[in-house]
Amino acid sequence: MTVHVSADACPTLVLNADYRPLSYFPLSLWSWQDAVKAVFLDRVNIVSEYDRLVHSPTFEMRLPSVVSLKTYVRPVSNPAFTRFNVFLRDRFRCQYCGAREDLTFDHLIPRSRGGHTTWENVVAACSPCNLAKGGHLPGDVGMWPAQKPYRPSVHDLHRAGQSFPPNYLHDSWLDFLYWDVELEP
């Protein structure tokens, strides 16, 4: 196939069979190559297209901008405990001072005092706050998190992810996404 577009110029928004994004953060996107392959394998329906074309000597098609899966993918009910998901739950803010830079994990009950690495015992903390708290309990040093840590649902993480729209949103995607953003002309 001859292609007259940049490889990253036309990402495809991937929707579940119910027309909801598979994820908001990171936004469920495929490269145009993966989207075209899924079309040919009959795994997706094309919902919207770009004005750009790809073609071979015998075939031409507009690049898909939005596709929906033909088979519904059941979302996981319990999100994985990962550093990224903790930061997302805590909206990428230090739970002690509100800083957004240099985030780390902080165990409310330090591991040195028997604390475990669980949703209910870990918060996002900037390095200076984490160092200041050290191996102490929150009450010992007067450092209480802005919110009590909790085990988020997938819905909680999706809702949190909607607070962080990606740098690029094609206008054909907006009917399927729920960010309050204005597109540049």
Report what the structure shows.
- The structure is a single chain.
- The chain is of the alpha+beta class.
- 19% of the residues lie in helices and 22% in strands.
- It has five helices and seven strands.
- The chain has helices spanning 32-40, 83-89, 127-133, 138-141, 154-161; strands at 2-3, 12-15, 29-30, 44-55, 60-69, 103-107, 122-126.
- The strands form two sheets. It has a five-stranded mixed β-sheet with strand order 1-4-5-2-3. Strands 6-7 form a two-stranded antiparallel sheet.
- A hairpin with a 4-residue loop joins strand 4 (44-55) and strand 5.
- The longest helix is centred in the N-terminal third of the chain and has 9 residues, at 32-40.
- The chain is elongated, with a radius of gyration of 21 Å.
- The model is unreliable at 1-5 and 180-185 (pLDDT under 50).
Helix content: 10-25%
Residue-averaged pLDDT: 89
- How many β-strand stretches? 7
What's the quaternary structure here? single chain
Assign the structural class, choosing from mainly alpha, mainly beta, alpha/beta, alpha+beta, or little secondary structure.
Answer: alpha+beta
- Unreliably modeled segments: 1-5, 180-185
**Rg value:** 21 Å
Order of helices and strands: EEEHEEHEEHHH
Strand order in space, largest sheet: 1-4-5-2-3
Shape: elongated
Classify the beta-strand content into a percent band: 15-25%
Q: What about the largest sheet?
A: 5 strands, mixed
Distance between the termini: 31 Å
Number of separate helices: 5
